[in-house]
Specification:
Blueprint (H helix, E strand, L loop, with lengths): L1 E5 L4 H13 L4 E6 L19 E5 L5 H11 L3 E4 L6 H6 L2 H21 L3 E7 L26 H20 L3 E6 L1 E3 L8 H10 L4 E4 L5 E6 H14 L4 E5 L4 E3 H12 L6 E4 L14 H7 L7 H14 L1 H9 L9
Parallel strand pairs: 1-2, 1-4, 2-3, 4-5, 5-6, 6-10, 7-9, 8-12
Antiparallel strand pairs: 9-11
This protein binds nicotinamide-adenine-dinucleotide.
Length: about 325
């Protein structure tokens, strides 16, 4: 089987490629990534020498390039991780989010229609469901919940999801969508909560926490997310949405304190900063459908997963330093 994996130099996509290339040695994985500021070739450099991996530097919105690639490679599966993914950036500059996340998805699906594929899989997010109240722990996001996005980021992901479902209904394109909660693990760009905390704590810098830090997220190890994506691609039903959650709801403050404790750093580093506009209160995912239909199971609990993750960052400080210095941009040469 031949896979196109877009956004594979980012956090989740690179973990997916490490997992898939080592698990399915007989399959071929082609990564298309524009290497935006969030794309880091160092994340996948070690795959370069594998016979079942190839990297293409390019943009999913570039129709000519995408068409040529599909014509040449004749993909069986397309897995779309490519996206602008940082909510704060979407508040400052929504346009690029609409271009990449919606029009990029359209460009890929048009090529899928033209050249034929077995499955187009859209990697989406639980943020399309909006948020849940803090005082109703009984409420969870289900696949049938209405879309109620809060930020330009989540609205762009929701727009893409609607388009994916419309391509299925109108053109019969074989599609699936996964909606996952907050991921943590190796190779996460240090703009997101967990790597920010680790990197700042290691340098004894203040750690910014939005508002009162009581917003709740459901944390999942990136490996469990990717195992879910693999199962959905192979065994999910066409036109269906599958939730993936970590069963690990934690306040942002709890997450920061857990990491500080592991690093032996004082809680006095925590600095509360003005809340993010429109900040979602609570995300919590019901993944029963994916568990029942596809036999998906979590392998990490939060305590072990976060411990492994902190250890990974401790053992890979060069990886963070290359990002801080900007030299990660030199890792790939056209
Ligand atoms: N991080 C999370 O917790 C989380 C949770 C649920 C869903 N998701 C979704 O998973 C996907 C991957 O998220 P991530 O955290 O790995 O993001 P990321 O920002 O780390 O990586 C995104 C990757 O996409 C590439 N990219 C961006 N624009 C592109 C374009 N126009 N053409 C080609 N490549 C482009 C970037 O270079 C980068 O390598 C996204 O679709 C995101 O919405 C993320």
């Amino acid at each position: 089987m031949k896979y196109l994996v877009t956004g594979g130099a980012g956090f989740i996509g690179s973990n997916f490629l490490h997992y898939m290339t080592s698990t399915y040695k007989e399959d071929m994985f082609i990564c298309l990534d524009a290497l935006t500021y969030a794309g880091n070739y160092n994340n996948i450099k070690s795959l370069e020498t594998l016979p079942n991996f190839k990297f293409i530097h390019g943009d999913i919105t570039n129709r000519e390039l995408v068409d040529k690639l599909f014509e040449e490679e004749k993909f069986d599966y397309v897995v779309n991780f490519a996206a602008e993914s940082h909510v704060d950036n979407s508040i400052k500059n929504p346009s690029i989010f609409l271009t990449t996340n919606i029009l990029g998805t359209q460009t890929l699906m048009d090529a899928c229609r033209k050249y034929g594929i077995k499955r187009f899989h859209q990697v989406s997010t639980d943020e399309v469901y909006g948020d849940l109240p803090l005082d109703r722990p009984d409420l969870l996001f289900e696949e049938t919940n209405p879309i109620k996005a809060s930020s330009p980021y989540s609205a762009s992901k929701a727009g893409a999801d609607l388009l994916v479902l419309a391509y299925h209904r109108t053109f019969g394109l074989p599609v699936t969508i996964s909606r996952c909660s907050n991921n943590y693990g190796p190779y996460q760009f240090p703009e997101k909560l967990i790597p920010v905390v680790i990197s700042k704590a290691l340098n004894n810098e203040n750690i910014p926490v939005y508002g009162n830090g009581l917003n709740v997220r459901d944390w999942i190890h990136v490996h469990d997310h990717n195992v879910g994506v693999d199962l959905i691609i192979k065994h999910g039903r066409d036109g269906e949405i599958y939730n993936l959650g970590g069963h690990s709801e934690r306040t942002n403050l709890d997450v920061v304190k857990t990491i500080l404790k592991q690093l032996g750093k004082p809680e006095s580093l925590i600095t509360f900063v003005t809340d993010r506009p429109g900040h979602d209160l609570r995300y919590a995912i019901d993944s029963k459908k994916t568990e029942k239909e596809l036999g998906w199971k979590l392998t990490y609990n939060f305590e072990d997963g976060i411990k492994d993750t902190v250890d990974w960052y401790l053992n890979n400080q060069d990886w963070i330093n290359d990002i801080k210095s900007g030299s990660y941009k030199e890792a790939y040469k056209d």
